[in-house]
């Protein structure tokens, strides 16, 4: 009888340890993209707590944030990305796009693991238009696999000229990528538009193309302009994508995608 009890205990322990290891070494990646309106909610109040709450509830591994201020006058010289990193327990890197209001303005990336390498890539833009940037990072998953994560924000003007050039620049970027990559951000155009169509020649998207859930404006979403995409197409598998509805935290709704890095075959 004692032998049976000990045997059951050992089996339970081994099963628990295997499950824990599988969870720790998972190739699933939870990606969140969120335009945070420089920390101002839709009533005009500065509120990082509500933004942090949206992020924490999503429990992401990687976060791409757009419209991030760094020590500008309109945020009272605060480093809002570092504050969000503290509130979420994630590591942060700020990607400057331009000087603005006595400080800087651009994108932010949050990560559950440390960055191996980061690079700020200036995107093409017309001389009179707002500068844009992409943050290219290299990091390791809990499984030990190395990937790239890119956060960006495309131009918003109706003519779409800058967006096309920015999409072309992102596609060219694939030539220098050493590892499988994920890109997330506010791309300011709808599915089927010329810039998104161009991107999807090289990248695959996580949204349902038959029913793309709108992300903007947050109170009554009409259009999808926030995306998670990945490269190369055959290296990733999409498990889930959802729009996180919150009409107060920002004028955009966040998008959460859960994707899996496929195991490499021996002949790859």
From TrEMBL:
Residues 32-252 form the Endonuclease/exonuclease/phosphatase domain. One of its GO terms (cellular component) is membrane. The keyword Magnesium does not apply. It holds the Pfam family Exo_endo_phos. GO terms for biological process: GPI anchor biosynthetic process. Keywords: Endonuclease, Exonuclease, Hydrolase, Nuclease, Signal. One of its GO terms (molecular function) is exonuclease activity. Residues 1-20 form the signal peptide. It comes from the Bacteria. This is Metal-dependent hydrolase, endonuclease/exonuclease/phosphatase family. It comes from Salegentibacter salegens.
């Amino acid at each position: 009888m004692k032998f049976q009890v000990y045997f059951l205990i050992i089996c339970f322990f081994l099963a628990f340890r295997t499950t824990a290891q599988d969870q720790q070494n998972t190739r699933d990646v939870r990606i969140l993209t969120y335009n945070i309106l420089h920390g101002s909610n839709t009533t005009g109040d500065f509120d990082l707590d509500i933004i942090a709450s949206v992020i924490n509830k999503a429990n992401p591994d990687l976060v791409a944030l757009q419209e991030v201020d760094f020590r500008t006058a309109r945020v009272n010289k605060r480093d809002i990305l570092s504050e969000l990193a503290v509130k979420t327990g994630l590591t942060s890197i700020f990607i400057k796009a331009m000087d603005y209001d006595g400080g800087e303005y651009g994108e932010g990336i949050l990560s559950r693991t440390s960055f191996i390498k980061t690079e700020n890539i200036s995107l093409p833009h017309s001389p009179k238009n707002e500068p844009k940037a992409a943050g290219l990072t290299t990091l390791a998953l809990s499984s030990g696999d190395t990937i790239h994560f890119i956060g960006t924000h495309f131009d918003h003007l109706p003519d779409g000229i800058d967006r096309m050039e920015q999409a072309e620049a992102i596609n060219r970027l694939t030539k220098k990528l050493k590892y499988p990559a994920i890109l997330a951000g506010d791309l300011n155009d709808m599915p089927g538009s010329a810039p998104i169509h161009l991107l999807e020649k090289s990248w695959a998207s996580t949204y349902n193309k038959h029913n793309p859930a709108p992300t903007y404006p947050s109170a009554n979403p009409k259009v999808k302009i926030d995306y998670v995409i990945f490269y190369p197409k055959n290296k990733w598998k999409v498990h889930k994508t959802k729009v996180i509805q919150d009409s107060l935290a920002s004028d955009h709704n966040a998008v959460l995608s859960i994707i899996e890095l496929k195991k490499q075959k021996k002949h790859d």
